Amino acid sequence: MTAKGGANGAGSALSGAGGGRFFTVGLIAAWYSSNIGVLLLNKYLLSNYGFKYPIFLTMCHMMACSLLSYIAIAWFKFVPLQTLRSRVQFFKISALSLVFCGSVVSGNISLRYLPVSFNQAVGATTPFFTAVFAYIMTVKREAWLTYITLIPVVTGVIIASGGEPSFHLFGFIMCIGATAARALKTVLQGILLSNEGEKLNSMNLLLYMAPVAVVLLLPATLFMEENVVGKTIALAREDFKIIWYLLFNSCLAYFVNLTNFLVTKHTSPLTLQVLGNAKGAVAVVVSVLIFRNPVTVTGMLGYSVTVAGVILYSEAKKRNK
């Protein structure tokens, strides 16, 4: 009886471990799918489909994030609700939301002019900008070896730029701006919400940032994208699929944040770094297969050098800790 009970207990443990592994693999697959899916759909809408309103598209994303974040936290209690403690904390979150808007809008604008493969190559330089902003804005200094590993990160993008057949200067500037703004948000978040009582998990932070982003983006899209609502309605009358594209794309933008939170929660920081580096490479391959944009050996070499630099940078930071 004892042996049988022990065997059953071991079997249950193995079954639970196997179920846990399948759950984690499923989360990673959902994370990859939502990240790459929203990127490719943004590219399709803004470049191939001809929906030339990146600010309005970003506002749609933020509206979906506002609504779905509220439903997930307030109704389904997906994570405990963290309330804001002061007006100062709200202004800090608003500042983060402004930078976040800048990064997403710039990234979407860049997709109008650049192929996804090159967009991802430039986006891989985020650690370089993070290190620069951290050096300028905080007293935190990394070991000299960590900064040396940033050389191939930048060198790779320079090589990729020279070998990119579809290079567009304005698109490149917007992509650099998006990458820098993304890094700035990370550093600012560490500074502004460093107080233990003000720290928010990523889902609660999105709950408060997204509505602020909508308020910031609404006048921008009305002023800079004239009659965008009327043009979208007119487009929908010709092809109603645009409404489904926008709805699906906006929901997917929320699931990017949701799955990122879950993968962070259920894997180690090292696993997340490895998966993040691989995700960019998968996005490049998938985008080339779908959009068939020309890719040169020089361009792929440059991207490979950048990714290698990011891996070395992550390893150097880990050892420094």
Write structural notes for this entry.
The protein is built from 13 helices and no strands. The protein is an all-alpha fold and 321 residues long.
Which shape, going by the Cα principal axes?
Answer: globular
Helical fraction equals: over 70%
Count of DSSP E strands?
0
Mean residue pLDDT: 89
Describe the biggest sheet? Answer: none
Element order, helices and strands? Answer: HHHHHHHHHHHHH
How far from one another are the termini?
50 Å
List keywords for this structure.
single chain, 321 residues, mainly alpha, 83% helix
Show the helix and strand layout.
Layout: H1 2-48, H2 54-75, H3 87-113, H4 116-123, H5 126-137, H6 144-148, H7 150-162, H8 169-192, H9 202-224, H10 228-238, H11 241-266, H12 269-291, H13 297-320
Helix pairs in contact: 1-3, 1-11, 1-12, 2-3, 2-9, 2-11, 3-8, 3-9, 4-12, 4-13, 5-8, 7-13
Question: What's the quick description here?
Answer:
This protein is an all-alpha fold and 321 residues long. The chain has helices at residues 2-48, 54-75, 87-113, 116-123, 126-137, 144-148, 150-162, 169-192, 202-224, 228-238, 241-266, 269-291, 297-320. Helix 2 packs across helix 11, helix 3 packs antiparallel against helix 8 (169-192) and helix 5 (126-137) crosses helix 8 (169-192).
